[in-house]
Amino acid sequence: MKKLFNFVLVLAVAVSLQSCLAGKYMSNFALVPERHGVDDIPRTRHKADSLLPGSTAWFDKLYAEGVIKDTVITGYRDFKVYGCYVPAADPAHANGTAIVVHGYGDNHFVFLYLVRMYRDDLNYNVLFPDLQYHGYSEGDHVQMGWYDRLDIEKWIEVAHDIFKDDFMVLHGVSMGAATVMMASGDPLPDYVKCFVEDCGYASVVTQFNSNRKQSFRIIPPDVLQSASLVTKNRYGWGFWEASSVKQLAKCDRPMLFIHGDADDFVPFSHLQKNYDAKVKGYKEMWVTKGARHAESFAKYPEEYKQHVRDFLKTVREMK
Question: In Å, how far from its chain's centre is CA 74?
Fold first, then answer.
């Protein structure tokens, strides 16, 4: 009996150790990718032009002319975070301010198509930051939107101080969309009027579990618990608390939900989970047929602009 007990104990320790090692690997793999930061700028500039040709030339011209400016603030956990801002094409008649939030592994360059849409087509002032561990921002890991929302809440105040608008929209794609949804459940200034989320995930744990099934089928789901504990010990947050749907349940301001029905990276099913979670206030849903992950604008650029334009018009007309 004692031998059996000792065997079971050794087996349990071995399994626990294996799970801990796997958890550390998964946390590192997901949250501390080797390719990031300044070294990744050339790739992301190329990606920006692949999504909308001429994007970086547009940016470089306005930056050289001093129209696009950059700034650095102290973000959450005292890391320096970087951002750019640009006034509306017709500043005297600006319709408001948009904050554009990029996705995982991206930076302020990648979604220049949204910056151009808001500035040139919708006549909005725009602020577009680098999240921590991305672009020119500091940081020790990818925060998956959870702590990023706290930096965005600082950027909200910065953008308002710069442009003095009383109408602000937050617009994010992928992890940026999750960031926006997570921020939407927090107390925000009254001038933040609405949100646009494009292909954001319902929660970090559901997204990582989907990634696990796609890329690491042999790893059991229990490893996510270990990876979450590693993340909690290292960075102060866990996978289960980082939830878009929990935050959306507290959101009472208008939101436009966009998702491609061919998205298999952030599965299309997340759209309905997010949409259903928002039980207060106005909401709209737009499904882009045949669009894969973060392809809605590339596949339907004019329709995308019109949906956002109409949504913002509807919000403005609300009392």
Answer: 19
DSSP 106-122: --TTTTHHHHHIIIIIS
* CA gap 294, 287 in Å, rounded: 12
Q: How much is the mean pLDDT over the chain?
A: 91
The whole-model pTM stands at 0.92
Task: Give the per-residue pLDDT at 22.
Answer: 73
Quick count: other Cβ atoms within 10 Å of Cβ 218?
5
- Report the sign of the C-alpha dihedral through residues 96, 314, 301, 258, in that order: positive
CATH (one of 2.60.15.10, 1.10.10.350, 3.40.50.1820, 3.40.50.620) for 37-203+242-317: 3.40.50.1820
CB-CB contact of 73 with 155 (8 Å): yes
> Maximum CA pair distance of the chain?
84
| SS3 category, 3 | helix
| pLDDT tens, residue by residue, 161-178 | 999 999 999 999 999 999
Q: What gap in Å lies between CA 63 and CA 107, rounded to an integer? A: 16
- Contact present, 88 and 116 (Cβ < 8 Å): no
Tell me: pLDDT of 16 over 60.
no
Q: How far is CA 235 from the centre of its chain?
A: 18
Given a contact cutoff of 8 angstroms between Cβ atoms, the answer to whether 196 and 170 are in contact is yes
Q: What tokens were used for 179? A: 């960031």
pLDDT at 14 > cutoff 60: no
Outline which parts of the chain fall under CATH 3.40.50.1820. Answer: 37-203+242-317
Instruction: List the one residue out of 131, 96, 156 whose CA is nearest residue 308.
Output: 96
Element (H, E) at 100: strand 97-101
Strands 80-86 and 125-129, how do they pair?
A: antiparallel
Closest CA to 284 of 198, 185, 186, 161: 198
